[in-house]
Amino acid sequence: MGIDVLKVREINRALDICWIPHAPAYVRGIVNLRGQIITILDLGIRMNQIPREITEGSHNVVLKKDPVGLLVDDIGDVVQCKGDEVERPPANVGDMEITMIEGVVKLPDELMVVLAADRILDLGR
Q: Shortest CA distance to 61 belongs to which of 78, 81, 40?
């Protein structure tokens, strides 16, 4: 999966996440990032998948909007593509929350799902 790099403020290792009682299941907790409190969302739960396990490869992708961090399994390469290369997502993505998918990009060896950062942050759902 990928996200528009222009919506990303920074990427850092998964820091000590402080659990918040009575928070929705997709809110993994909060972290203190250089004096600023950032809410960390578990992208797995937010996308109707299994919770993310924190490993050596886990990172927080801190978005510019709000700011909020997304707990992800790993960080890959930056992929450049034009807007017209992002195709509509297929209708049959299974249990994954399709409203949070911007589209799909064809890479040489695989397909990359592009997440819609603004819709992931629409927590009123």
A: 40
> Please, what are the averages of pLDDT over each run of 10 residues along the chain (125 residues)?
90 88 93 92 86 89 88 89 83 68 88 85 62
Query: CA 80 to CA 56: how far, in whole Å?
Result: 26
Residue with tokens 């909020």: 68
Query: Is residue 43 in a domain?
Result: yes
Domain that holds residue 53: 2-120
**pTM, rounded to two decimals:** 0.82
Q: Residue 81 belongs to a domain with what CATH number? A: 2.40.50.180
Residue 66 located in a structural domain: yes
Residue 31: what pLDDT?
Answer: 94
Distance CA 18, CA 29 (A): 5
**Is position 125 within any domain?**
no
Q: Between the CA atoms of 26, 30, 31 and 36, what dihedral angle is there, to the nearest 10 degrees?
A: 120
Structural domain includes residue 20: yes
